[in-house]
Amino acid sequence: MSKSIKLFLNGEFVESKGSNTIPVTNPATQEVLAHVPCATHEEMVAAVEGAKEAFKTWREVPVPERARLMMRYQALLKEHHDELATILAEESGKTFEDAKGDVWRGIEVVEQAANVPALMMGETAENVARGIDTYSYIQPLGVCAGITPFNFPAMIPLWMFPMAIACGNTFILKPSEQNPLTPTRLAELFVEAGAPKGVLQVVHGAKKQVDHLLHDPAIQAISFVGSVPVGQYIYRTGTENLKRVQAFAGAKNHSVIMPDANKQTVINNLVGASVGAAGQRCMAISVAVFVGKSKEWIDDLAVELAKVKPGVWTDKDAAYGPLVSQQAKQRVIDMIAKGKEEGAECLVDGTNCTVEGYPEGNWVGPTLFNNVTTEMSIYQEEIFGPVLCAMSVETLEEALAIVNANQYGNGTSIFTANGAAARKYQHEVEVGQVGINIPIPVPLPFFSFTGWKNSFFGDLHAYGKQAIRFYSETKTITARWPESEIDNGPNMTIKMQ
């Protein structure tokens, strides 16, 4: 029996009055887990108005009190860690270990939000001119909103609303309609942590509801994670409506393999980074560029990839789960077929993957293409599945040229034992996040998540210090207090006439 997902408006979980609903399905079985409503216009208005009203008082709450709310929240998230991971695995198809990682990376951001007093300190300079001092305050923007994707239903909402709310803003979350159960539970725990009424609102729906957030003049800032076309639309529409926007979009992440790297380390890391989470993560390694003699390792990589088996989240031996939907599976299958048509050598083919007992699952097995060129569709497009493209070049300079010519710049890595090669790569590569002997260089939350080029539209990135700047405004005060104005009290001296 599927459940009805509720809206979270002004401190209450309420049934939507909307007639349109979207089914939430288990990716391994196609069982309908829930129905998510498309919020009505009136419900969207209520969310915005409630957030506006709550901001009037929340912005005045002392920064240490806001930090203590985040401390209580992260404690509850840790207490309910496995419960959240179970909900997440059931609705997204992730393995239990992967789901736990999703939740934990979100908790780490909440812990950073608890450090907000130090992060919101302004600057000061005494005597910028004679008797004049200048100082600045970091103040909240107002109502902010977040639009989050299906692939990290815990981590990415937790990238957004805790940081925004810790800064003194109120927040409206529009999670993915494909897995809303996890964000709903996150909101329930936020209430349990003591969040005041109206500080967080959760609405559901599709493009119509997103457009409301993009056009409502009360919303000051929009955070988004998703595909390139939607990211561009969010950025253009939001900025046209004079909003601050950060839009994280697609990726085609390259790993450069130098011949002096440790062969087994490279193979192990490429397998996990390419097909983990069924390749449905924007930091997955989807292109391996083998330099010089390292191309001799491609056949061994194929052997190891072929051993990897997907399965359901309760299977402890499963390396990854199904793709999120039947549409996502079909797209990946079509891309694999296109790679073959374009002349790439398919060393491992996951097209006809099956998992015993789950014939309806959205399964795609690990897939490896060799002799891929930059003109091929499987190289140019983000596949978002367990597919790795292998290329071979003779020099590090050639590898750098390939990476820098790509339209995306989310993450990259180099495997080498040579410090000079690593230094050259990290300095010259035009990508926001670089790993050295680390396949997926997602930074911890005291740094910022910094994709470049068509992987990001905006100026200030997620979490870390940049998130504080994104969710706040700076007020600069210049003050003069002339000493001649000092009142020393009544003069008791009797003057002679």
Task: Summarize the structure in words.
The longest helix is centred in the first third of the chain and has 18 residues, at 41-58. Helix 2 (63-79) packs antiparallel against helix 4 and helix 10 crosses helix 11. This protein has 2 domains: 3-250 and 451-479, Aldehyde Dehydrogenase, Chain A, domain 1 (3-Layer(aba) Sandwich), CATH 3.40.605.10; 253-407 and 411-436, Aldehyde Dehydrogenase, Chain A, domain 2. The chain has helices spanning 41-58, 63-79, 81-92, 96-113, 116-119, 155-166, 181-192, 207-215, 228-240, 263-275, 298-306, 326-341, 377-380, 396-405, 419-428, 464-470; strands at residues 3-4, 7-9, 12-14, 21-25, 32-37, 124-129, 132-140, 143-147, 170-174, 200-202, 219-225, 244-248, 253-257, 285-291, 345-348, 367-370, 387-393, 408-409, 411-415, 433-436, 452-453, 456-457, 472-480. The chain is built from 16 helices and 23 strands. It is 37% helix and 22% strand. The strands form 6 sheets. It has a 7-stranded mixed beta sheet, with helices on both faces. With 497 residues, it is an alpha/beta fold.
